Amino acid sequence: MILIAILFSCFSFYILLDNFKLFNNKLLKIVISIFLSVSFLSFSFSLSLFTGMNFTLYQILFLITPIIYCIVNYKYFTAIFKKVDSTNFKLLNSELAIILFCLVLFTSMFFFNSLRWGRWDAWAIWSLHAKFLYFNDQFASLFTNNIIWTHPDYPLMLPSLIASIWKSLGIISPMVPLFISYFTAICLLLLVLSSFFEFRFKTLGIISFIVVLSSILLDYFSSSQYSDTLLSVFILIPIVLKNHFDKNKSLFFLILIGFFAATNGWIKNEGVIFFVIFFLFFSFDNIKKIKNIIYFLLGALIPLLFIIYFKTHYAPVNDLVNATSIDSLNKLTEINRYSTIYDYLLEKVIYKNSLLIILLISAIAIDYKYCLTFDFKVIISLFIIYFLVYVLTPHGLEWHLRTSVDRIIHHISPAIIYTIFFYFSQKYEVIFAKITS
Q1: I need a surface site. Which of 118, 198, 362, 364 has the fewest CB within 10 A?
Q2: 3-state secondary structure of 233
């Protein structure tokens, strides 16, 4: 029943987005609708757990709401998929073949590298948390430091998605987290592609699509069934939406931007840091447009309420926060910690992600003003905060670096690739419009 409800929810959000005329490209509307649907599935299922609601009743409510919306908009619903507009241009056979070939190649790599329950974090954290959520009488048992190794303070986005589908199917199946990870990665790729299609940069969209797909981290982390790919998508979405807002100026964009930016904190603790950084830069850019900030916060309200309630009523204190002390702050003056981090980043990150580094250096060399963009300031600030966490970490520094550096690069790499291509597509719009459309 939940899968049917997700389908109708996607239809409902698609109609809503089309009503507000935010995008012309249908693929982009579909991708945004999917992530809106899974977000509300996670929030609503978590709410049913918090309130002790009967799961059958919850399923009925979650299913009937989008069905009613689709019925009310029946004529619009049937006409919307027949409508043709100028921005939904046809792909050439060669272009379509390239996209399909890349998707098939990624699919083959994904399933070839996948394990039954994923790698360590998948079965020891995310799927394990989902099993606690699956059993009503075990739900609260998750939030205890007796199982600190499974990080019970982690947010509930991915576990709630897995558990809600498990409960609906009536079986705990490894195929559910597997396909959630797969479709998350596919939608990430389609998000990049469709955003450029919206701006009529067809070839440039395909190139950026291929570059993101070529990242070794995307295949590794998506097939691992970690939540990091989901976080990388939600970091990218508000950046994409803000770039489209700059062209459209619809206030509903601001609600969506606020919603997706704040929802990052419902995926991983690092997502809270992203939201704070994004909000600070957004507020600074709109200091004279208070209405924009209000609409942004209005969109962020639901995710923030869930995060605050979860952190104050259920989640134990995070291990990094709990271990922070004066001794930790003294680490700021230990020069050898900085050199250790630098050496590790140089050896394991720069060489391992040479394509990303070459692209970034080339962009800055061609036009240093890319560094002054809103997107880059948000991304580089997030990376700096990550760096400071390593300096202050109460854990063994080398262990912490070894187990998490690849993750943080994966969090920001799709956004870096997208923003570089987007910046130059806008700066040289006339040239790219002639060459790539």
Answers
A1: 362
A2: helix
Question: Taking CA 365 as the corner, what is the angle to CA 362 and CA 369, rounded to the nearest 5 degrees?
Answer: 110
The tens digit of pLDDT for each residue in 108-162 reads 999 998 888 889 889 889 999 999 999 877 788 888 877 778 888 899 999 999 9
Tokens of 140: 């609260």
Query: Which tokens is 384 given?
Result: 């700096």
pLDDT at position 1 is: 81
Concatenate the DSSP letters of all residues of 274-300 into one string. Answer: HHHHHHHHHHHHTTT-HHHHHHHHHHH
Which token pair is 187? 């939608």
CA distance 192 to 206: 9
Q: Which residues contact 93 (CB under 8 A, 6 or more apart)?
A: none
Which run of H or of E encompasses 195? helix 175-198
Q: What is the Cα–Cα distance from 188 to 404, expressed in whole angstroms?
A: 21
Instruction: Report the amino acid identity of residue 62.
Output: F
Structure tokens at 131: 């099993």
Long-range contacts of 315-320 (CB under 8 A, 24+ apart): 315/143, 315/152, 315/153, 315/154, 316/143, 316/144, 316/145, 316/148, 316/152, 316/153, 317/153, 318/153, 318/269, 319/148, 319/151, 319/153, 319/394, 320/389, 320/393, 320/394
Two structure tokens written together for 424: 């130059």
Do residues 351 and 405 lie in contact, with contact meaning Cβ atoms separated by under 8 Å? no
